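Supplementary notes (optional reading)

For those who missed the lab, this is the record we used. Protein: Succinate dehydrogenase. Length: 266 residues.
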Amino acid sequence: MKAGVGAPGRAQMSERTFRTDRWRTYPITTGAILLFFIAYATVRIFMNQWYWAPEEHYLTPLYSPCLSDSCVPGSSHFGTPLPEIPSFIPMAFITFIILAGFRGTCYYYRKAGYRSLFLAPAACAVPEPHKKYTGESKFPLVILNSHRYFFYGALIFALINIYDMVLAFHGKDGGIGMGLGTLIIVINVAMLVCYTLSCHACRHIVGGRLKNFSKHPLRYRYWTFVSKLNARHGQYAMISLVTVILTDAYIMSVAAGWITDLRIFN
């Protein structure tokens, strides 16, 4: 069965759309950001180096937590339950599986990916090029329905990122200190937490299946808070991509010795 303007019963017209606004801006810019992040993250996780700045106690979120014997000294904040990993396997494969699964199954990223990468459709009132529509009921797209389970893992990783952030307030003489990297990490963690908590799955978990909010005042309060964040879920999703890249790039530069961390105090 044909879809779009060629579907039976639809008015036949030669124009693909009568929209006169710049509707291509969203799919082009969003697609460019998504593709750049995918390429950058793929290269970084296979590098297996320059993820830990020992003097500043900076650990990049792409490699947190580092759990194998392959991790450089000091970067394993939770021990090394995993053995040494071959060089061709990313040390951050657990982080990649959980967080890539969380973002890949995210409702917002699904919309962004369909519109910008698959043009399904590229924008409202713009027909898609596909002849058939099967939704997400068949493999592999049916896997996207596991989003709420990836959310649990992402929530744990958000707590780990907070812990890494606290450790980043480390002075070079052993006391409390702060550098430019610390501020970058704080901003990144704030965006990651906002993105995680604004998730639709989080909103359902804290307030879903309740028949009467008045009998559950605490859950109603949590649901209200998450609902306010949820309104900006798409913004947090894209901003957090940028902050993750900037944070990783800065820590990589410090760890590799390309730049020196600008210390604010201590």
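If you only remember one thing from this example: The chain has one domain: 22-265.
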